[in-house]
Amino acid sequence: MRSVGGVSKGFSSLEQRGKKGAVLTVLSRNAEYHSFAVVKNLGMMKGAYASSFAHDCHNLLVVGRDPVLMAEVAQKVLSEGGGIALKNSDGTELFLALPIFGIISDDPLETVARELRTMKILFGNGEFTGKDPF
Fold it and tell me: What are the Cα distances from residue 128, in Å, to 29, 58, 95?
């Protein structure tokens, strides 16, 4: 297995391989279990993404290139009881609350659709070049 980066000051240095790598973390809701992987060709260029709405709704998915931003978006989702959080490299933050089981919003459909469109625009603005994560 080839590495997509190195280690600097205890953190993965993903920039060493042409910005192809990202860290993907899955945490159980009770934080008892967690998994980490370094993935490449995901399209994550900057920023971080966390969501309680994923294939398995009992987990929190966190993806990013910056461990500080990853921790911030994960904490936002956990502190709000579920949702989707984005934070890009210039500090812009967006959050869609999903307070019902971490996968359902209690906001009107129009509000949720508008918030998701805004997230797509922010995420697609040079932060993410891969397939639409929403």
Answer: 26, 25, 17
Q: What pLDDT, on a 0 to 100 scale, did the predictor assign at position 18?
A: 52
pTM over 0.85: no
Contacts 24+ apart (CB under 8 A), 34-40: 38/3, 38/4, 38/5, 38/12, 38/14, 39/4, 40/4
Instruction: Write the pLDDT tens digit of every residue in 66-124.
Output: 889 999 999 999 999 999 999 988 888 999 999 998 889 999 999 999 999 998 887 77
**3-class secondary structure per residue, the chain:** CCCCCEEECCEEEHHHHCCCEEEEEEEECCCCCEEEEEEECCCECCCEEEECCCCCCCEEEEEECCHHHHHHHHHHHHHHCCEEEEECCCCCEEEEECCECCCECCCCHHHHHHHHHHHHHHHCCCCECCCCCC
Q: 12-50: per-residue pLDDT in tens? A: 555 544 556 788 888 887 778 888 888 877 777 778 889
